[in-house]
Amino acid sequence: MKTATFYLIQPDSQQAQPDGFREYILFLTRFIARQGAKVYLNCCHREEAELFAELFWQAPAEDFLAHNLVGEGPRNGTPVEIGYPQVSPSRSRQIVINIAENNTTFADRFAEVIDFVPCEKNARQLARERYKIYRQNGYQLQTVEIAYP
């Protein structure tokens, strides 16, 4: 069964800040990929995708995780592929971590979706719309609060 998990970002949490949110995305992506899943990180736009690619490169050696932008990297891919709405992820991905605010056209491509409910009012409303789309696509839905220092 396909699942979609929405992580709730609390206003007073570290993840409510841009740097804290990026750090959490890096942590979550590493955690999932190290369990053997091939992850697609769906960013808002190309510049954000390139930023995350660079952040992965800047990690200490013990935290390094092979990754590539869509269209780059080895033929069979790396554990993490990073893209944005104007490009298509490779078909070999099981999980998408969606940090784009309104792109859900990929909703039927993945067995598992991880998404976020931000604090900001407009972004929260867009998350509600994505939730409805996932439900319409047959995903089993759940919400959890981020539990990360």
Summarize the structure in words.
The model has no long low-confidence stretch (mean pLDDT 89). The chain has one domain: Rossmann fold (3-Layer(aba) Sandwich). 30% of the residues lie in helices and 22% in strands. It has helices spanning 18-33, 46-57, 121-136, and strands at 3-8, 39-42, 67-69, 80-83, 95-98, 112-117, 140-145. Strands 3-4-2-5-6-1-7 form a seven-stranded parallel sheet, sandwiched between helices. By secondary structure, the chain is α/β, with parallel strands linked by helices. The protein is built from three helices and seven strands. It is an enzyme of class 2 (transferase). GO terms for molecular function: DNA binding; DNA-directed DNA polymerase activity. Its EC number is 2.7.7.7.
